[in-house]
Fold this sequence. Notes:
Blueprint: H1 2-20, H2 42-49, H3 58-74, H4 107-123, E1 131-142, E2 147-157, E3 166-171, H5 172-185, H6 206-224, H7 227-230, H8 233-252, H9 256-273, H10 279-294, H11 298-311, H12 321-335, H13 340-351, H14 362-368
Antiparallel strand pairs: 1-2, 2-3
Helix pairs in contact: 8-9, 8-10, 9-10, 10-11, 10-14, 11-12, 12-13
Amino acid sequence: MAARILHRLRHALAGEGAREEPARGTAEAEDFPESSELEDDTEGLSTRLSGTLSFTSHDEEEEEEEEEEEEEEDGAGGELGQLPAPPGEAAGAEDGEWAPAGERAGGSGLLTRQLQELWRRSRGSLAPQRLLFEVTSASVVSERSSKYVLYTIYLIRSGRFDKAPAAIARRYSDFERLNRRLRCRFGCDMAGVAFPRKRLRRNFAAETIAKRSRAFEQFLSHLHSIAEIRRSPEFLEFFFLPDLRAAQRLTCTGMYREALAAWANAYRLQDRLGACASGRFLLTLAGLAVCHQELEQLGEAHGCCEQALQLLAAQDSHPLLGPFLQAHVHLAWKVGKDKRQSEARLQDLQDAGLPLQQPPTLKECLIKEALD
């Protein structure tokens, strides 16, 4: 199995090198000079080979899937058979030694359990997880007086499987604006960050779109690797601020189902980017709670309020604390959960000098919030 994978990887690398070599001396190279071209790395290469902007035909994909299925069946007792067995699952082997899956009944099920156990262990490890940026599609959009390419980017945590991926859709001008803002604030850090320059023609050619897709992946990865930039509002809000604005607008107009999808994507984006301690994240939880409640999904709304109150456990003056406490008391009564702790905290706030007038509701807070 390893030989087949190695052969396939060499074949893909040889094909990519053969395609790129003749183009180095042509006019296409002017659009991505050395100063604006990012270097390849093995992880980026493996990501592209695994499907980033893949032009593989449907028949080739089916053949690859069939080959992978055959390799799994042939290799069940091979390299994967050397994985250590989790405690209590080595029945049939002597002295705790795990026998290959094909040598006893239920081998394939045991292999699955072993892989799941290793997966759980890897998730609990202290090894840092990288965030990968993958352009999964690019489409040409024509409006009344303009035409542009819209790039869809997935944010993927390495070593994790996300059932609901976090995604954004941005055009070249959005990336250019981000690049300009970051260079104004982080001139020294941005000196080594490459960005693809504008073109006067062939902007909608497949080659141009593919090159820019790859350059944007590397551009975002490079920015995310710099701690100061990674934590900056300019970088973070590039990802989730458009979703927050759209979600707020939809919530104000009563389109709660559409708003819920936008709030949920903003939640996932902030989670992937490690921005869950910001005021924007609390506003996102408020939006989720309001939309869930309006859609009669009271259990989900209650869970959003509980998560927000955990983040506000050490704060007594946050403007969203009172609205979240009131919403939590109301929802807890509706779903039959304990509300005494929230009631006691509301009483403590009033005893500490909280104004006696009724605080705004979560929905009112959402409407009044200015998302600059």
